[in-house]
Design brief:
By secondary structure, the chain is mainly alpha-helical.
């Protein structure tokens, strides 16, 4: 079996992925923290809206293709094909962003903030395809280095611009430029060293790739919207200040999700290799091991978060955050369930079970859309978390049942 499935290789990839992603997670948290610190909850609310829309449309710009790309071990499509498709999806997501701004009734400042943040997200969409090439070739170590560099450069540019200009839009512009320099100056260069065919620019089956991965893009868009829709309801019903508070409380929860992602990302290609070689026993065993690892993380993470979280929030934001600390416990539970959803989605993508992904996320989205506004109206900001949690549980139940039945047939 290929060395990429070896325990040593997976452990190395997990180590680099963990260091790099955690560094980048902290750097992204610093952005929201300094916006709140320097601009207050109102500015944090504008930034949160920009992130909500940008994060949702990011799924369109990268077409949720990463797991599909790194599990394409035959390969069915060339690296050039994946890159060419990224040009199309990024252009489409930018047009959709403009349409959202025009139809959303945002003021000029909010519109400029949303558009500039979307440009930043587009650089990340290109990073995703370059890093997918590196991951498939067993070089998550290079991906980890990239995230470490971005973790230094991006917050330095953003915070520096924010301090000097005292303008959120200028800061986001600096963020986009810093990200672009790393993505096109480092990620692209490294990916070119391991690519299988950058010179084959004509006659690529790009549209066939887009058609085949379209169900995963639908899933990616809906799962992103699933997380952002309750926040938009908070903004609509309670205002941008409330959303800024909610987003600030939710920031530390991302640590739990990212820790789970450190475990999940490196095993996608090994799972695909096992599936491709018909090694059902080892495939099922690896799935169970990772599921147990995510569960163990949850058992440790919840009490740790309850112990550290409130103190850390007060330390970061001061006493004015204390009235909102009651939001934290449910958000931690939500973060844990989200991590398990990511794991299930990765396994189902390796198995090319796009039907299950669409069914699961559609039911989940329906639950959130129906419940978010009534719950926020009834119990305030906690209602947004309860609504999201109900949707995530719906997704988990459907996917687990589907996966168990499928593995029994294999």
């Amino acid at each position: 079996m290929t060395s990429m499935v070896s325990s040593k290789g997976i452990a190395r990839d997990m180590a680099w992925n963990s260091i790099g992603n955690f560094s980048y997670l902290v750097s992204q948290w610093l952005l929201t923290y300094f916006v709140t610190l320097l601009g207050g909850f109102s500015a944090a609310g504008v930034f949160a809206i920009s992130m909500s829309i940008g994060s949702t449309l990011l799924s369109l710009s990268h077409f949720s293709m990463r797991n599909f790309q790194v599990s394409d071990v035959k390969p069915e499509f060339s690296d050039s094909c994946y890159l060419q498709s990224r040009h199309i999806t990024c252009a489409a997501s930018l047009l959709v962003c403009i349409a959202v701004i025009v139809s959303g009734g945002y003021d000029i400042y909010e519109s400029a903030s949303i558009l500039m943040y979307m440009v930043f997200r587009l650089t990340e969409a290109y990073a995703d395809v370059y890093q997918g090439i590196l991951q498939k070739n067993g070089h998550l170590d290079i991906v980890g280095v990239s995230f470490i560099v971005k973790a230094v450069v991006e917050p330095a540019a953003f915070i520096g611009a924010l301090v000097v200009s005292k303008d959120l839009i200028v800061a986001i512009l600096a963020l986009a430029i810093a990200s672009g320099l790393v993505v096109f100056g480092f990620d692209r260069k490294k990916a070119f060293q391991y690519s299988d065919g950058w010179k084959h620019g004509c006659g690529l089956p790009v549209w066939r790739l887009l058609r085949k991965s379209a169900p995963y893009a639908v899933y990616g868009f809906l799962i992103a919207a699933l997380g952002q829709y309750p926040r938009l309801v908070v903004d609509d019903l309670l205002g941008s200040n409330a959303l800024g508070s909610y987003a600030s409380i939710a920031m530390p929860v991302a640590i739990i999700q990212s820790c789970a992602n450190y475990i999940i990302v490196p095993i996608i290609t090994p799972l695909a290799l096992l599936f491709e070689h018909g090694d059902t026993k080892q495939f099922s065993l690896l799935v169970m091991k990772v599921a147990c690892a995510v569960l163990a993380l949850a058992v440790v993470a919840y009490p740790a978060a309850m112990w550290i979280g409130p103190f850390a929030l007060e330390l970061m934001f001061g006493a004015e955050i204390l009235p909102y600390v009651g939001l934290f416990p449910l958000l931690v539970v939500c973060g844990i369930v989200t991590a398990f959803v990511w794991f299930l989605a990765g396994v189902l993508t390796v198995l090319r079970q796009q039907g299950c992904l669409i069914v699961s996320v559609s039911f989940a989205m329906a639950v959130v859309v129906v419940s978010a506004a009534p719950l926020v109206s009834a119990i305030g900001m906690n209602g947004a978390t309860v609504s999201l949690l109900c949707g995530l549980i719906c997704f988990t139940v459907i996917s687990v049942v589907w996966l168990v039945l499928l593995l029994r047939k294999m």
